[in-house]
Amino acid sequence: MKLTVPAHFVSRRGICLLALASLWTGVACAQASYRIATEGTYPPWSFKDSQGALQGWDVDIANALCEKMKAKCEIVAQDWDGIIPGLMARKYNMIVASMAITEQRKQRVDFSDKYKETVSRFVSRKGAPEDVSATALAGKVIGVQRGSIQASYLSQNYKNSEIKFYDTPQAAELDLVAGRVEYILGNMVTYFVGFMK
Fold first, then answer.
1. Of 2, 82, 87, 94, which one has the greatest count of Cβ atoms within 10 A?
2. Counting Cβ atoms within 10 Å, is residue 126 exposed (0-12), middle (13-18) or buried (19+)?
3. Residues 111 and 14 in one domain
4. Which of 7-16, 104-113, 133-142 is predicted with the least confidence, judged by mean pLDDT?
5. Has residue 9 got a pLDDT over 70?
6. Where are the alpha helices (DSSP H) in the chain?
7. Across the strands, what pairs with 24?
8. Are strands 110-124 and 183-187 parallel, antiparallel or unpaired?
9. Given this model, what pLDDT does residue 186 score?
10. Quick one: 167 and 90 in the same domain?
């Protein structure tokens, strides 16, 4: 899936896999069941429905992988900033969570080929200046999800802004609505299907 909108910056995304390369070729493995982690608060990619069941595009991808592998899988929610540490601690066998492929992450985990591209956007309250350059946002308060590529981007490029980190995109959105931050930076599609609709 490719979004054809102008990009502030575009991230490459892939399924994070560790020690499961043989599954892609259909080779039988001794393990018949897998635990798969996803984030669970990032609609439309992964979220919980009104009954608390995980839903979304990443959940559909995980289920398709399990069907292809003829394996029984349990999909579990994991906070974003602990998703790679949880994999390293063997709490689950793989991550399917629209994770951006970065050099830093590639040093810790293996990725599949990318399966989508996404666009990040700044969002502000109505009437805020539209210039979102580092110079224009100097001294401004910007909210972002902790551990995300957007958090890394802000930390590296917006050193004169106050950056507030949140556990979920929704927490940052609430602070934007409440006026505790002036801008938020995150996944454009998540914003459009979430609080902006």
1. 94
2. exposed
3. yes
4. 7-16
5. no
6. 21-24, 57-69, 83-88, 103-106, 149-157, 169-178, 188-193
7. none
8. antiparallel
9. 92
10. no
- Sequence-ordered list of residues with C-beta below 8 angstroms from that of 87, at least 6 positions apart, any chain: 16, 18, 37, 94, 95, 109
Residue 95 Cα distances to 15, 152, 157, 163, angstroms: 7, 20, 28, 27
Q: Does residue 160 form part of some domain? A: yes
Tokens 């906070």 belong to 79
Lowest mean pLDDT among 70-74, 117-121, 170-174: 117-121
CB 25 within 8 A of CB 66: no
User: Do residues 72 and 111 lie in contact, with contact meaning Cβ atoms separated by under 8 Å?
Assistant: no
- Burial class from Cβ neighbours inside 10 Å (0-12, 13-18, 19+) for residue 13 reads buried
CATH number for the domain spanning 77: value is 3.40.190.10
- List the one residue out of 4, 88, 82, 103 whose CA is nearest residue 39: 82
End position of a domain, from candidates 78, 93, 118? 118
For residue 44, is the peptide bond before it cis, meaning its omega torsion is within 30 degrees of 0?
A: yes
- Torsion sign, CA atoms 196, 43, 79, 186: negative
Domain final position from 84, 101, 118: 118
Angle (CA) 193-94-187 rounded to 5° is 25
Domain residue limits at 132: 119-193
